[in-house]
Amino acid sequence: PMRKYDPEGFAFKSVKGEVSEAMHFDWKRDKIDDAKKRAIYDAKSYDDFTSRVKGCTLKPIHKNEFNAPPKFAYNRGAHGSETTAADAPAPYVRAAGGANSVAVVRAGAAAAAAAAASSGLSIKSGRELDRELRRRPAAAEKADLLAQLDGDACARIFARELDAELLRQMLLILEEAAPLGASRRLLKDLAFRCPNQTAMAATFLTPQERGVAARVLARDAAPDEDEDVRICAALGV
Fold it and tell me: pTM, whole model, 2 decimals?
């Protein structure tokens, strides 16, 4: 139902929260409705029907992810502190040759990153983007790669889904190394070109990680407040 807001008691933060809750409510309602319609024809029993409906909002696991290495190499909530892009493990393996081997592998990773820099816009999926980010050891190199992503690239890469861990890494990179303008543009493209995928991934972010998104937006003021409303609603800020 429509509600009238008292100008004296109007709070912009509460409006952002209501918009975010409404978007999540609509998404969940559509998911449950579609699951019920499919289960009517496919379910073999009532228990099967209820199980399909209850699990329809869970993130699906693709067959390629069963044997994939874990994306979390540490427990983010163990110490209760905020994480940065530097906390991620460096993209090299320690071979038997000791420090020299480490240097060689680091150099190889840097060369691969430089070779792939010119083809950053040819990335076709979130998995490829995650792999390219891991190949770049420095946060500035990762920020340069994210700066190459425009609205069309975001819509293409995240047409299927946006992984929550990838979104977390992108937020940390934007806060640490992205220049003014580039970080806001990327968040705007995510919120405007793939809002459902972004909102779904944002549900897995911690309050500290949502705070990263708020700080990124605050340091680069928008000419239009509606832009901030839509970005904050998509990211759950």
Answer: 0.51
Which of 118, 89, 126, 90 has its CA nearest to residue 106? 90
CB atoms under 10 Å from CB of 43, counted, come to 17
Residues 74-91 have pLDDT tens digits of 555 555 544 444 444 444
Rg (alpha carbons) of the chain, rounded to whole number: 21
The answer to whether the beta carbons of residues 27 and 59 sit under 8 Å apart is no
CB-based contacts of 121: which residues, under 8 Å, 6+ apart? 148, 149, 150, 153
pLDDT of 18 strictly over 50 = yes
CB burial of 61-96 (b: ≥16 within 10 Å; e: otherwise) equals eeeeeeeeeeeeeeeeeeeeeebebeebeebbeeee
pLDDT digits (tens, 9 = 90+) for 45-104: 888 898 888 888 887 777 777 667 666 555 555 555 444 444 444 443 344 444 444 444
Let me know: does 77 contact 206? Beta carbons within 8 Å. yes
Q: Which residue has the tokens 């998509």?
A: 234
By C-alpha distance, which of 215, 186, 180 is closest to 84?
215
Cβ within 8 Å of residue 134, ≥6 positions away: 91
Residue with the larger pLDDT of the pair 62 and 188: 188
What is the predicted pLDDT for the residue at 138? 87
Closest CA to 163 of 83, 54, 73, 62: 62
Is residue 86 classed as helix, strand or coil in its secondary structure? helix
Q: How far separated are the first and last CA of the chain, in Å rounded? A: 24
